[in-house]
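Quick one, tokens below. Sequence please?
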């Protein structure tokens, strides 16, 4: 995690743009329902049409500003994630060029290929989700609690009681899924190893008619990886 944050911190301008975009996201999520409440309670229910137009225009303005904020946030997060994964791949490739034969045997070529392809892609997705959650969640939590207290104080205690249960549930699921994620990684390494052996020895395999043998070797590895992925 520290390594990812180190790479992410290189792009401060995009981080600032993403933070500004979060404000727009929160405007839509919190502002539109709040304005809708005033339209229904203070205008429609009371028959006061004078409030309908200004509140409606304000809602349209909030939607436009919030939409621009969401676009800016998505753009910034995508640029950060793409740049981070580019830097990680470059550094990983440079590092592997300095490995000795013993180190190559220790990590295995298939594992190194997985690290620079599939693992790198998963890190990119993680960075995108992390940026979105890390910035949105605190703002949404604080603004949500503020709205609950001002709208219905009794409901605040219900949310406060449920929150620890939710946190424990997330922790439990994350703890249980970790071994399966490691098994999934090991399975992907095996698939890459089989693919690499099959492609590098393709002429010899065809010369001796061992295509079915190679397919039989690959099938259980692929089936195992599929089962672990379904469990995850």
């Amino acid at each position: 995690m520290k390594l990812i944050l180190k790479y992410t911190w290189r792009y401060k301008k995009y981080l600032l743009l993403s933070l500004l975009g979060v404000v727009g996201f929160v405007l839509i999520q919190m502002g539109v329902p709040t304005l809708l409440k005033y339209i229904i309670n203070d205008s429609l229910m009371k028959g006061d049409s004078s409030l309908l137009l200004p509140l409606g225009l304000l809602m349209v303005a909030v939607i436009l500003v919030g939409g621009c904020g969401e676009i800016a946030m998505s753009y910034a997060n995508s640029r950060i994630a793409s740049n981070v994964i580019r830097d990680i791949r470059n550094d990983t490739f440079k590092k592997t060029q300095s490995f000795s034969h013993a180190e190559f045997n220790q990590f295995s070529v298939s594992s190194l290929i997985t690290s620079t392809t599939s693992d790198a892609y998963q890190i990119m997705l993680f960075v995108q989700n992390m940026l979105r959650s890390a910035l949105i969640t605190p703002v949404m939590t604080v603004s949500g609690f503020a709205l609950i207290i001002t709208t219905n104080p009794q409901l605040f205690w219900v949310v406060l009681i449920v929150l620890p249960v939710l946190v424990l549930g997330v922790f439990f699921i994350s703890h249980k899924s970790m071994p399966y994620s490691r098994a999934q990684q090991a399975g992907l390494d095996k698939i890459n190893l089989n693919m690499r052996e099959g492609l590098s020895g393709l002429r010899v395999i065809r010369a001796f008619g061992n295509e079915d043998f190679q397919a039989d070797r690959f099938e259980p590895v692929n089936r195992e990886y599929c089962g672990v992925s379904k469990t995850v």
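The chain has two domains: 1-151, 154-232. The chain is about 90% helix and 0% strand.
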